[in-house]
Design goal:
It is a single chain. By secondary structure, the chain is α/β, with parallel strands linked by helices. The protein has two domains: 2-113, Nucleotidyltransferase, domain 5 (2-Layer Sandwich); 115-186, no CATH class. The protein is built from eight helices and six strands, in the order βββααβαβαβαααα. Strands 4-3-2-1-5-6 form a six-stranded mixed β-sheet, with helices on both faces.
């Protein structure tokens, strides 16, 4: 099962911690949770707060205990059966690990970049273009152009930005839209996973 994941954090500095996590399944079902910081989690950047608009007070009053969120994440995202997709897998992996370390989990889902998934989904289009004897550079430009256009279209969509669930939904939308446009270009569905 594929899950699209986004994590908002206290800052981008060393020692930062997760403050909100959101995920969306490949079927489009999602959830998110504000995370009440652990006592040792103290690194906070007011500039980051301006971006995500999540205050310390919100975390204290609306956040779930970090251990509860960690257990919920492990229930939904078991490392042995889930492919985790992010648009920032390095930082998100760090924050996910910090969260799961609260419950001393030795097994963490591995996050992959969205491009990892999209590379697979554009293969039918590449084969289609190759069958039409298109030059390699033109094929590459066509496929890259389509993926970039999907990214631009998602960026232009009206939605909340820099919150975990809407950002995870944006990743899911990009994935499904690439699939739709590839199917349209080749004239047949590329199939679900």
């Amino acid at each position: 099962m594929i899950y699209f994941l986004d994590i908002e954090a206290s800052s981008l500095e060393q020692g930062s911690f997760p403050i909100e996590i959101g995920w969306v399944s490949e079927d489009g079902v999602g959830e998110s949770h504000l995370i009440r910081p652990e006592p040792a989690w103290t690194t906070w950047n007011p500039e980051s707060e301006k971006v995500h608009q999540i205050t310390r007070n919100m975390l204290a009053t609306e956040g779930q205990p970090a251990a509860w969120v960690a257990r919920r994440a492990l229930d939904v995202l078991p490392p042995d059966t889930v492919v985790g997709i992010s648009d920032a897998p390095g930082p998100d992996q760090y924050w996910l690990s910090r969260l799961l370390d609260v419950v001393k989990s030795s097994s963490h889902p591995v996050l992959f970049d969205l491009t990892h998934l999209l590379r697979q989904d554009v293969q039918p289009l590449l084969r289609h273009l190759q069958a039409r004897r298109m030059e390699a550079e033109e094929m590459r430009a066509t496929v890259v152009g389509m993926v970039l256009k999907v990214q631009e279209d998602e960026a232009a969509r009206v939605r909340v930005r820099h919150r975990a669930l809407p950002d995870a939904e944006g990743l899911h939308w990009r994935w499904r839209e690439v699939q739709r446009r590839v199917a349209e270009a080749v004239g047949k569905p590329i199939g679900d996973r």
